[in-house]
Design goal:
The complex is a heterodimer of chains A (540) and B (358). Chain A has 540 residues and is α+β, with helices and mostly antiparallel strands. Helices cover 39% and strands 19% of the residues of chain A. Chain B is mainly alpha-helical and 358 residues long. The chains are: A alpha+beta (540), B mainly alpha (358). The interface between A and B is medium-sized, with 32 and 29 residues.
Chain lengths: 540, 358
């Protein structure tokens, strides 16, 4: 780390450093693209984890979180725009593919224009939206942006701000869909998009030429809302992101706040959290199996997987009192102690799951039609998976070992014996098999812990009013669909200055266009289903 | 032994005893038409109940069980619901073709109904090219589907209709060829002739290997022909919302729904006719006592029973397999089923010429 810092300081004398939470390089926009290129090519920072837009009192800017997928070193770079009136940054979408959507998000909320970005359009908001909502001086008076009564016309062109070699930036209009394209709206209400997600799809007969992604139909502005809430109040948003990773998301949020507070969580709470996380993962993968098969037309599997999922939900219900949004993790531990039946129920569940998995493979995995539909469909190479930031089971199916539980072990994961499931197929079949095998690994983790839940406190004592010190923190946790990350920036008060939710499904939505080009409509459904995105997590 | 032919014969004599001949014919036509339509509706209702119940049991559920005893009245309730639903009129569509499409679909299946051998002597028309007529009229259905997709002025329905066109035209080849294989064995195209050729032994046993191959191909192609899973691409709900009938509502939608179930019956009815002896009871040469017992079961029950049993198999397909993709679907037909079928036809001819069948 120290060595990296010195090399950067040597090569980029203008860079300054901040070390509250890992190493952060602070650099101005003029040198940012050169630094990014050097970091990626010379230092192997090939995975862009997150792009956090921010409105600092001095300037607009972004924090980029980068990691090296070999050494797993995380580095963040803070870049500020030179002008406050017309903020502009150089885009890194040419270096990391997932910067494309992330930078559009920042443009949408902060109005920072990214130079050389191919597609500077709104991502979530309507084209006629006034103002940039996450700026601190945003006018949230309803009369400024009244509830629209008219449909938004889809615009088939976009703009790009291209920098000439002499440094002048010109605005260029670019075509998204040509007038002769046969464009079909798949979504926002469509049975296979798993929520309100909209793909404008240009078709050539059954073949897909291009997909343009429209987001924001379930955008709830969580990040903005967090800025006016106290820390314990913010937690409930985590359950409503990816509702099938509710436990892990909330675990991550709590970990981030606990890290900032320097709080030690009791051992019992840690064990409970891990068991709950793994139960949640099984739950999520079972739901994936059901809905994915239903997308492929095998409706019966849905009921078979729901039969087992129901048992897990019953276990959750007994302890947490809810089947969907559990609100179980709290800052310092968990909210309630385990139900007396918990151990017994979980032990009864494990043999059922083994039996059920065999049945699923018999019914679905071995089927010839299944193989024809899945093998070789939506092949994602490892390099593309990293570039698009496809973490979690989908990335591991492409041969990228990216499990946060192994790369940056949190809680008690470093003591546990389990394997990271990695396959090299990279296609839909690989993504299916990774999830099926991960259920077995989760069972293995639960089996190791279920008899060894220690006695003791379930929650560390926390102050009535929680204030974080001045600084910023970033924490990742392996959720059901990949690495969920929370970024919190605090000025020492009861409310955060900025909360950024780095969702797991956002990059998944971004890769759909790449994977589906030249495939058929039916493959779009297979690919979408196998990526297993959850729309509330994309939109936040 | 009770046979419905006695009832129809008695009715004919009764009517002609106090009516001129032309009136008798007219009255009989009306009666037959009414009987056919009632049967059509009742069978569809039965099939809806049957499929829902069967699929529920496959899926660890109970299915409809609240309306009436064992949920038997559920499909009647559904029928009344669909009868009183509003037919939503759409802008920017070809009104005439849009309204015509469901009728074409339903006419195709009603006409196919006419030549099915319901029982001994219980058949609306029995002419010498009966099976040919059946194959011909069942092809009208695809026209209705294409029209529905085209006239709705919707991109999803258009894709669904085009898929349906490609699929049904392709699979009709397989149906035609496997029917031809069996016609070659029977030596006649008349439906009665085909059934009567099987009164001693059903064709599936008589024609052994080529007949079994033809049966398997017929079942696959028949499932595809009815647009049912795993061949339900034209209405693949996870891809095209509801395919060609997305824009239909009320009774018009009901017609498509009805025709789908009736086509299921027709396909399995034809399979029963060609391979399992139509209304002919199960006879095994030499087992006189057994054959005598089998003769006691009425012929119409034999036919309906066989058809429902075969439909069960098709329903079983639907609730087990995932859906095919359009290129897999066409490859299956053109690269596998069609060559096998052609070879099978030659094999059947060899079997017949050298008298290798039973």
């Amino acid at each position: 780390m120290e060595e990296l810092k010195n090399t950067i300081a040597g090569k980029f004398p203008k860079a300054t450093f901040d070390e509250t939470d890992g190493l952060q390089v602070v650099i101005d926009d003029a040198h940012w693209h050169d630094l990014a290129l050097w970091l990626r090519d010379a230092k192997g920072f090939d995975y862009l984890i997150a792009v956090v837009g921010q409105d600092w009192p001095e300037a607009y800017g972004c924090v980029y979180y980068l990691t090296n997928t070999f050494t797993h070193v995380i580095l963040s770079v803070k870049v500020t725009a030179a002008s406050r009136e017309n903020p502009m940054l150089h885009s890194v979408s040419d270096l990391w593919a997932n910067a494309n959507l992330n930078e559009r998000e920042v443009y949408d909320f902060y109005g920072i224009i990214f130079i050389n970005h191919p597609d500077m359009r709104h991502l979530y908001l309507r084209n006629d939206w006034v103002g940039y909502p996450l700026r601190k001086d945003y006018n949230d008076d309803p009369s400024v942006n009244p509830v629209p009564t008219e449909n938004e016309e889809a615009i088939d062109t976009t703009v790009a701000y291209i920098e000439a070699p002499d440094g002048t930036v010109t605005k260029e209009e670019r075509v998204v869909f040509a007038p002769e394209d046969f464009v079909v709206n798949i979504g926002p209400q469509h049975p296979a998009t798993h929520g309100v997600l909209r793909f404008r799809t240009a078709l050539d007969g059954e073949y897909i030429k291009k997909i343009d992604l429209y987001l924001g139909y379930v955008h709830r502005g969580m990040e903005k809302l967090c800025e006016s809430l106290a820390y314990p109040q913010m937690l409930h948003f985590a359950d409503r992101l990816d509702y099938l990773s509710a436990q892990q998301n909330r675990h991550c949020f709590c970990l981030c706040i606990e890290k900032a507070m320097g709080l030690k969580v009791p051992r019992r709470a840690q064990v409970i959290r891990v068991i709950m996380d793994e139960l949640m993962r099984i739950n999520s993968h079972l739901l994936f199996a059901g809905t994915f098969c239903m997308d492929l037309g095998a409706t019966t599997m849905l009921f078979y997987t729901f039969r087992e999922r129901e048992k897990i939900l019953d276990i959750f219900e007994k302890t947490c009192g809810a089947r969907m949004t559990f609100h179980y993790n709290v800052i310092g531990g968990v909210a309630q102690d385990l139900h007396p039946d918990f151990v017994k129920d979980v032990k009864a569940l494990i043999p059922d799951l083994h039996k059920a998995l065999k049945e699923y493979h018999k019914l679905f995995t071995g089927n010839v039609i299944t193989h024809q539909r899945m093998i070789g469909v939506g092949k994602l190479s490892k390099a593309d998976a990293i570039s698009y930031g496809i973490s979690g089971p989908s990335g591991r199916a492409s041969g990228w070992s990216n499990d946060i539980r192994k790369t940056h072990p949190y809680s008690i994961y470093s003591e546990l014996d389990f394997d990271e499931v990695v396959r090299t197929d990279g296609d839909s079949f690989g993504r299916w098999m990774v999830r099926m095998d991960e259920i077995l690994q989760s069972i293995k983790i639960i089996e190791q812990l279920i008899d060894k839940i220690p006695e003791g406190e379930i929650c560390a004592p926390v102050p009535k009013v929680i204030k974080l010190p001045v600084g910023h923190w970033f924490q990742q946790v392996e959720a059901s669909r990949g690495a969920i990350g929370f970024y919190i920036e605090s000025d020492g008060g009861v409310n955060p200055v900025r909360v950024k939710i780095n969702s797991t499904c956002f990059p998944l939505a971004g890769v759909v266009d790449h994977l589906t080009r030249g495939t058929k409509i039916a493959d779009l459904i297979t690919i979408g289903g196998s990526l297993d995105y959850i729309v509330p997590d994309i939109d936040r | 032994m009770f046979e419905i032919s006695r009832l129809t014969g008695w009715l004919h004599e009764l009517l002609s005893s106090w009516m001129p001949e032309w009136l008798t014919t007219t009255v009989e036509c009306v009666l037959i038409g009414a009987a056919l339509l009632v049967l059509y509706a009742l069978l569809a209702l039965f099939y809806i109940y049957f499929e829902r119940r069967v699929c529920a049991f496959f899926q660890c559920r109970l299915g409809p069980n609240r309306v009436g005893p064992m949920g038997l009245l559920q499909s009647f309730a559904d029928m009344f619901k669909i009868l009183i639903k509003e037919i939503i009129s759409l802008k920017n569509i070809d009104r005439f073709l849009f309204a015509l499409a469901p009728y074409l679909v339903i006419i195709a299946s009603v006409m196919a109904f006419a030549v099915l051998p319901w029982g001994k002597g219980l058949q609306v028309i029995d002419f010498n090219i009966g099976i040919f007529f059946l194959v011909a009229v069942s092809s009208i259905g695809v026209l209705g589907i294409l029209l529905a997709g085209w006239s709705s002025n919707n991109k999803f329905t258009l894709i669904g209709a085009m898929r349906s066109g490609a699929q049904m035209v392709s699979y009709e080849l397989s149906i035609g060829l496997s029917v031809l294989t069996m016609v070659a064995l029977a030596g006649t195209m008349s439906v009665t002739g085909i059934v009567e050729a099987q009164t001693d032994l059903w064709f599936i046993f008589k024609g052994h290997l080529p007949a079994v191959i033809a049966f398997i191909i017929y079942m696959i192609a028949g499932t595809a022909e009815t647009n049912r899973g795993p061949f339900d691409l034209p209405e693949a709900e996870s891809e095209l919302t509801a395919g060609y009938h997305t824009e239909y509502s009320g009774l018009h939608f009901g017609y498509f729904y009805l025709a789908e179930y009736l086509n299921l019956f027709i396909v399995s009815g034809v399979a029963a006719l060609l391979f399992f002896g139509g209304w002919a009871p199960l006879h095994i040469p030499g087992w006189e006592g057994f054959n005598g017992v089998m003769d006691w079961i009425p012929s119409w029950l034999w036919f309906v029973g066989k058809a429902v049993a075969l439909s069960f198999v098709i329903i079983w397909f639907k609730w087990t397999f995932p859906r095919l993709r359009i290129d897999n679907l066409l490859a299956l037909e053109w690269k596998y089923l069609l060559p096998i079928n052609l070879f099978n036809l030659v094999l059947m001819v060899v079997v017949i010429v050298y008298g290798l069948h039973f």
